């Protein structure tokens, strides 16, 4: 019996030694990385994060590096904060990541990953208008015609500065949802929206008489970047590696063209048949990958 126990003990010890000697993956050895983001908000009172394009992109690129960098969990607050506070919270480390349109100011204050996660769609603008005003917009043939009308924008959005610099009239406010009601009250003529936004916003806001304008498209180069704080470069490195992997294997394009909101916008936007007006904007960083055609959507 003693001999049997000795053999059994040695067998267990051998198995234990074998399993302990196996390589341990990063995913098995680490606690999940908590990635805090701004709310995936829109005009809806509540949203399903899993359907949001920005959430899908962030999840995808973190999954690409899960084997090497470990597990993760995306944490998004439900409450909405003023957009200006979002950037401060990234700088101070309360939020880890923000996915938004770039600007020279944002690139100075935060660390940009200079790859357009939305294929440059932030640069294309379709208007929300009062339905009865469509003939007025159908009559717009030149930029000077558009300059006779008034846009409504948030005062901190990059569009505000760009539209004004191109001689376009702007009514600016600190709000976001308020702009829909101000448009309905005809305090301005049109509300420029990023090309993928009008239809879901109109559906969510449900304000009778507001529609997506049918004929015009305004464009200036404005890629959407993933930003971290300048101190959070380890996370930035992981995100950039994952994003590049998703581009190389085609999975980023798959998410882009299959996201329900992007798909809807590309179909309803009919961008290739609109009259295009190009605006001048601040020069993009020399590091902007303008020559990599894979990264950009062209109507």
* Annotated CATH topology of the largest domain: D-Maltodextrin-Binding Protein, domain 2
Counting helices, strands and paired strands, the structural category is: alpha/beta
Largest sheet: 5 strands, mixed
Low-confidence stretches: 1-28
N- to C-terminal separation? 81 Å
Radius of gyration: 24 Å
CATH A-level architecture of the largest domain: 3-Layer(aba) Sandwich
CATH-assigned homologous superfamily of the largest domain: Periplasmic binding protein-like II
Q: What proportion strand?
A: 15-25%
Instruction: Compute the number of structural domains.
Output: 2
Shape: globular
- Quote the average pLDDT: 87
Account of the 3D structure:
The protein is an alpha/beta fold and 299 residues long. The protein has two domains: 26-120 and 223-249, D-Maltodextrin-Binding Protein, domain 2 (3-Layer(aba) Sandwich), CATH 3.40.190.10; 122-219, D-Maltodextrin-Binding Protein, domain 2. It contains 14 helices and twelve strands. Strands 5, 8, 9, 10 and 12 form a five-stranded mixed β-sheet that branches. The radius of gyration is 24 Å and the shape is globular. It starts with a helix and ends in a 21-residue tail after the last strand.
